[in-house]
Amino acid sequence: MRILILAVVLLATARAQELLALKRVYVERLTGGESADQLRELIIASLHNSKLFVLTEDTEKADAFLRGAAEDLIYTDQFQSADSLTMRASVGAGARTSTSSGSRASGVTVGENESVNIHERKHEAMASVRLVNKDGDVIWSTTQESGGAKFRGASVDVAEKITRQLMADFAIARRAVTERQ
Question: What residue segments make up the domains of the chain, in order of their start?
Fold first, then answer.
């Protein structure tokens, strides 16, 4: 058991060192169609602003590749509901004699009808990305999704979440490497 824990720590430390050693990263085209291409551009801008490493357009110069899939959906969520309550009652009576004729009738009707029809426009984005070294080994990965933030759209929010996660993992890697030395 102790050997297994040591092996995991050493592997984690090796991945941390590899992550910290990155100098140039190429962001590959993400699968998922046209919306994935737009999300790729937002991820590139967000990663560039982080200044963790240089982003390159030349695959030959890259130390690692960011790969993955992304999707940005805009759709309308529809909810319909209808409730109805109706109650009817009737009473009738009639009698006829030679001296008088009489008739009585009574009726009650109650009805209620309620319907709701809600159309809500929703915007959701998600991306699952990984950093892969030249040998094809995964160094880092994350999956992020968003329904949009208060002051930015879902795609921008996902791109920034990816960058924040990478920056947090870089900080953890620095601490892990520093503690091992």
Answer: 2-74+124-180, 79-117
